[in-house]
TrEMBL record:
It comes from Spizaetus tyrannus. This is HIP1R protein. GO terms for cellular component: clathrin-coated vesicle; cortical actin cytoskeleton. It holds the Pfam family I_LWEQ. The gene is Hip1r. PANTHER family: HUNTINGTIN INTERACTING PROTEIN 1 (PTHR10407), HUNTINGTIN-INTERACTING PROTEIN 1-RELATED PROTEIN (PTHR10407:SF10). Keywords: Coiled coil, Cytoplasm.
Length: 279
């Protein structure tokens, strides 16, 4: 008992209730995330335009698709859990089944919490990105976290499910869909970041003549530095290639020398073998 984690101090008879509460809480978190994304979309349309609006819409649309995929995953996971309990409990009650399989139940609760937490974090990161107070990298990390927690939930459900279960097959399909939507969030975030950075770098409309001249001089310095660095790297590449070709040539010559057979003695000249020397 002393070695058990403190998070497992819950009474076993309460585990069944916790599973249902946690799954319901996860579903609520996802529904709330979808609502918040819709609000952000409306706000972005009112407060931004041009490239920034295009980028925000693309990112938020990909986040909405991911939330829908997660919602379907949680619903399918809930159906699979009911199927597992019904097929495995026999004469026992649902609460007794969860108590008997307490470690599996705890894993299920943990995985469900991870999915709900990931969805909440994704929305908060998206909100900061739209308001230009957060980093695009946060969205990418959250997408990876959601994919990982999804895999955790599928693994936890798969332990007790029958291999031929249709709900298990649907859950695995939902998991693949979540991974695909998470990858779309990453792709839209990266492309949006590149668009925004390119626009910000090339927007000179608000600069004065003096500021433009200063920027021009600083850019010329950077160009010269990069050209010098490029020339140095080319020289280095040439030397590396020379060394590579030299070593490769020596290696091949050595191989040919080892493989070349020794010349046979001429038949016309026969020499006496040397006499054995005294030690």
């Amino acid at each position: 008992q002393e070695l058990r984690p403190k998070s497992l101090d819950i009474k076993q008879e309460e585990l069944g209730d916790m599973v249902e509460k946690e799954m319901a809480s996860t579903s609520e978190a996802i529904e709330d995330a979808v609502r918040r994304i819709e609000e952000m979309m409306s706000q972005a349309r009112n407060e931004s335009s041009g490239v920034k609006l295009e980028v925000n819409e693309r990112i938020l649309n990909s986040c909405t698709d991911l939330m829908k995929a997660i919602r379907l995953l949680v619903m399918t996971s809930t159906n699979l859990q009911k199927e597992i309990v019904e097929s495995g409990r026999g004469a026992a009650t649902t609460q007794e089944f969860y108590a008997k399989n307490s470690r599996w139940t705890e894993g299920l609760i943990s995985a469900s919490k991870a999915v709900g937490w990931g969805a909440t974090q994704l929305v908060e990161s998206a909100d900061r990105v739209v308001l230009h107070t957060g980093k695009y990298e946060e969205l990418i990390v959250c997408s990876h976290e959601i994919a990982a927690s999804t895999a955790q939930l599928v693994a936890a459900s798969k332990v007790k499910a029958e291999k031929s279960s249709r709900n298990l097959a649907r859950l695995q399909e939902c998991s693949r869909n979540v991974n695909e939507m998470a990858a779309n969030v990453v792709a839209s975030t990266k492309s949006g970041q590149e668009q925004i950075e390119e626009k910000d770098t090339m927007d000179f409309s608000g600069m004065s003549l003096i500021k433009l001249k200063k920027e021009e001089m600083e850019t010329q310095v950077k160009v010269l530095e990069l050209e010098k660095r490029l020339e140095g790297e080319r020289v280095r590449l040439g030397e590396l290639r020379k060394q590579h070709y030299g070593l490769a040539g020596a290696y091949e010559a050595a191989e040919e020398g080892e493989a070349k057979p020794a010349a046979a003695p001429r038949r016309g000249i026969l020499k006496k073998p040397p006499l054995a020397q005294k030690p």
